[in-house]
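Subject: Re: docking follow-up (flavin-adenine dinucleotide)

Dear J.,

Thanks for your patience while I sorted out the input files. As discussed at Tuesday's group meeting, I've set up the holo structure prediction with flavin-adenine dinucleotide included as the bound ligand rather than trying to dock it afterwards. The sequence and the ligand SMILES I used are pasted below, so you can double-check that they match what you have on your end before we go further.
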Amino acid sequence: MASPPVDPVVSDPSPPAAADAVVVGAGIIGACAALALAEKGLSVALVEKGVVGGEQSSRNWGWCRQQGRDSREIPLIKASLAEWDRMAGRTGRDLGFRRAGVAYVTDKPAELAAWEAWVARAREHQIDSRMLSRAEAAELFPDARADWIGGVATPSDGRAEPARAAPAIAEALRARGGHVLTHCAVRGLETEAGAVSAVVTEQGPIRTRLVLLAAGAWSNLFLKRHGLEMPQLCVRASVLRTAPAPAPAPAVTDGALGAPDFSLRRRLDGGYNLALGGAVAFDLTPDAFRYLRAFWPAFLAERKHMRLRLGRPFLDALRQPTDWPLDGESPFERTRILDPEPDDRVLDQALSALKRAFPALAGVEVAGRWAGLIDATPDAVPAIGPVAAQPGLFIAAGFSGHGFGIGPGAGRLAADLVAGDPPLVDPAPFRFSRFSDGTTLALEAGL
Ligand SMILES: Cc1cc2nc3c(=O)[nH]c(=O)nc-3n(C[C@H](O)[C@H](O)[C@H](O)COP(=O)(O)OP(=O)(O)OC[C@H]3O[C@@H](n4cnc5c(N)ncnc54)[C@H](O)[C@@H]3O)c2cc1C
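The structure tokens for the complex came back this morning:
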């Protein structure tokens, strides 16, 4: 398989006997939440079944964007970019965060109309998005040989290095006295008088009254073990990494660019992360039928970009028990790192399109390919907050393909809620209860 490189983090030798809070899952969300909890003075254990950042959080494009965000996420993404600004100081490391801008360009007039609606929304939130005329798009990308009729750009948007971020944040947690456990699956929860009293890991229990489930694609399986659930489905997305472009090739952009037939982001090493827009593969599973009604609007919105498959994942999921004893191996130990096969066909398409648009990059080499499983909710907004039916349990999951940029803000918000502190932003749009209280899970028309 083809994992992207991710900075290694050495595990503590064994879990602590007790902690004020335990965070399940060391992706960007769990790492940021754990650091924020430690900064509040709580003793924290961050517990990861594989390696820190090994799943979505090291496999993503590395865009940190406000542009095109759902209105419900705008206050949180603005706060998150401010958290990213502080992250080098908090971790003592360069995570590659640069406010180098995000731009989309197009050859379709209908897209420009949608982007104008976004620019109006951005203005209400004091975000500096602006439309690009044909001439302005050409000026922003002077080496492009493409017939783009215009675009939209947000200069204050950023990018960061997924391979560095979660590991550096986990190390910062450790520097503040927190515990970091890797290759240590959390099998489930123990309760006393109905409230969480411990997590059971494969290396033994940790007594705690506060648990944050930040388990990405695994969150619903974890919940099901405890008679809870959230509508969560996963799609597979592929990414290609180029080597640094040979001189004297142009710098396409120092930030991120979404073009009609490729999307890229400048890497700290001078290369690019490249993908084919929103192209994803969706392996049908029993949950796809279980949550069909809730996800139907999302499916209709994405079907142009989605390849449906019915294959082994269906059978694997069918065989997957939703209950297991806490003193034996759990499903989380059986798959340490989700590492799906990349789709070479779509990546080759994106690479050809990039080379057509920027002929000076014709000689650029491919340094790696990988894929990741994106966990999504029906309204494409995450769940962040308490799980009322299980006192002591909180969740931060379902980031629906855009959790990296919003990660530091979301982690901080989750930490505020776990600690009972005033929240960074209004958490109501992210409440877990919306999945079961009759709320219409509406998708907002995005970019
Ligand atoms: C190809 C791709 C491109 C993307 N591009 C972008 C982008 O440009 N910008 C953006 O903002 N977002 C992007 N995303 C989305 C972003 O990567 C995710 O939303 C974000 O990383 C989610 O972080 P997380 O911490 O919730 O999940 P994850 O990073 O998946 O972390 C969850 C962790 O929990 C661990 N875990 C699960 N169960 C257990 C257990 N029982 N015990 C212990 N550990 C457990 C897992 O091993 C995993 O490491 C992209 C995603 C992909 C796949």
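A couple of observations from a first look. The CA atoms of residues 65 and 79 lie 12 Å apart. The radius of gyration is 21 Å.

Let me know if you'd like me to rerun anything.

Best regards,
T.
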